[in-house]
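Re-running the complex after MR caught last week's input typo. The corrected sequence lines follow. Everything else is unchanged.
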Amino acid sequence: MVERLSRCNLCLGARFSVYARVRGTMLKRVFTLLRCDGCGLVFVSPRLTRAEVSALYSPSYFQGDGFDAAVDYVSLLDNYDAAQRESDYVLERIRVFSSRKDLRILDVGCATGSLLRVLERKKYASLLGIELSPYAAGLARKNCTSPVITGDFLKHDFGDRQFDVIVSTEVIEHVTDPMRFFRRVKRLLAPGGVFICSTGNVRSLAARLLGKRWHYIAPEGHLFYFSPTTLSRYYAAVGLESVEYSALDGKHRKKMLRIEDNMLLSILDRSMHNNDRRVEFVLKMLRFLPRRFIGRVLTIAMGKYRLPMAKNGIGIVGAGKVSRKK
Ligand SMILES: [Zn+2]
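Corrected-run output:
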């Protein structure tokens, strides 16, 4: 019934400490999060079986009624502005590398296609989405004109196709074998291509302050919890080069932070709309502060901007510049 990990997925070490014990949101039982003594990777073990996990991703999951209430991709379909603000996170990262509009872009776990739709409006010409859930993929096909594959990124036969940009937003924490996932990313990236992902940062201020109450912990489906260090280690293990936030030039860094402030405020507004009690509580505490300031505090606390991107080889896809400080 449960799947126990005896080796760390990243360093293959077998010595772990208990990071937290937490109650699931859907299945009211206690899960253990372990932290690898060798590399610091945090993961759920024992965890639900593959069959149990896939049962979690029902249509209601995509409507915000699943184990992770922050997921409400269906409402994004009717809210282009919110989708835009949440897609800017990816757009700015693409722009760091290239200003070309003919980049071959793959959105892994594209859900209902809100990112693809924004990319289409921004005139990106070569887009492809892949989504495991037939329900979400069906909505994505209605939502945008780009092709969307219903299938498993790890198993789908892409032939000899390669991509300049592979995006996965809030996906890698759900994957049962991250090393396989990153290997696939490496294989599908064209020389000079980039991998852009977002996930929780387990070494962020919020994670460290909140401990087991960190909002990102959702042990039924969030199986791995990455940090800038463990993510870089994964990239190195599969032959990708890390691009750290601190290595970007000042202009991009500033813009990224501003975009992230807006994205988090937008997510906050959506959570308010969905009556998330925890968010209401936080907003009540912060209500005397200007919104811009709240956005920046959240950005720093969440620490997502600190998660590195990855690049395949030394070449840069297009005209964008990445200057290295220090
Ligand atoms: Zn390890």
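None of the earlier attempt is carried over here. Residues 114 and 279 are 23 Å apart (CA to CA). The chain has twelve helices and 13 strands.
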